[in-house]
Design brief:
The chain has 11 helices and 14 strands. By secondary structure, the chain is of the alpha/beta class. The strands form 3 sheets. It has an 8-stranded parallel beta sheet. Strands 1-2-3 form a 3-stranded antiparallel beta sheet. α1 packs across α3 and α5 (135-146) runs parallel beside α6.
Amino acid sequence: MSPSASPLSISATAERWPVNGSFIISRGAKIHVDVVVCRISDGTHEGIGEATPIYYEGETAENCVTAIEIFARAHGSFDQQTLLDHMPRGAARNALDCALWDLLCQQTGQPLWQQASLPEPRALTSAFTISLSDPATMEADARAAADTHSLLKLKLSGSDDHARVAAVHRGAPDARLIVDANESWNNLDIAGEAAALAQWGVELIEQPVSAGRDDLLADVRSPIPLCADESCHTSADIPALAPYYQAVNIKLDKAGGLTESIRIADAAEQAGLKLMVGCMLSTSLAIRPAFALAQRAGWVDLDGPLLLAKDRDDAMHFAGGQIMLGRQNR
């Protein structure tokens, strides 16, 4: 995208959205999610983007708003490359980048997939998250979800994981399963854990070890593909991860926008890695650009809006375990 000939008007606000019940992973529970919403106007058209602060990296909606305001004061007009050059990765840059892409779509009248040279959108099967809990609760949650969702993602903790996965399999014996260890397997026999989970049909294991300790996987021969999540932030990370993982989970908030996320996808595929596109808790506004990139992915985990008590009016369409653009967004 070329810089606008006239200065752009940029604004950012923080919003709080309640979770439906609570969302529990090994790091704790959340009952709401705070997001940052960025708007960019050229005086005629307006682009809008949403991002979720990466709380485990110290981001908050408030400091993301501040970062956007500082960038806006310093740059009257800019393009995606300027954004990459002058703002660090993270949710603030993601909100700006996605708003910039949306502005371009409004200016040209072309959909995002065409502007970003991505595949034409089709409905995708998205994982549905089963929050971390005791095995009986996870079994009940899986049974309830299985009527609608054919792909379930289990949150694990490094303790009693076999019992949790077995329970979910009992509750939803026909569902495909992926698991997210959330960096909790540092002190476990990872190959042994993977072999045990394989009997329940688990087809992907996310981030078994802590980010930065990926070398713990050097001698691991897993029967299930291992997927880097917290270890994968930008395209520059791919060469170091390729010896240890078979897939990467791309999240726009981690990467700092759709622009860098596309670069991650390109680098990962060139390195022989498969793609997963995931999300943080968010509304459908944040999911739309991720959905565009997810057309290239082997696994899709874009259920963030389904975990909220409510979504935006112009929501993505979720039905039968699939996600697609709502009519108003096509």
